[in-house]
Design goal:
With about 55 residues, the protein is an alpha+beta fold. It contains 1 helix and 4 strands, in the order H-E-E-E-E. The protein has one domain (about 5-50).
Length: about 55
């Protein structure tokens, strides 16, 4: 997956915004809460926030 594919998927959710946080982390958020992030420029791994259940 490249950055454009990641952006396309994440930004397809209603109310999603993106920002660079902590100087090197691309973050996708809904209502200011992160649900996906990855370090720039290396997108080999992503972090997803999901419910516990």
């Amino acid at each position: 997956m490249d950055i454009e594919q990641l952006r396309s998927i994440c930004l397809s959710f209603p109310g999603t915004s993106e920002a660079v946080k902590y100087d090197d982390q691309l973050a996708f958020m809904v209502l200011g809460k992160h649900f996906c992030s990855s370090r720039l420029p290396d997108l080999n791994t992503i972090n997803l926030k999901v419910p516990d259940d």
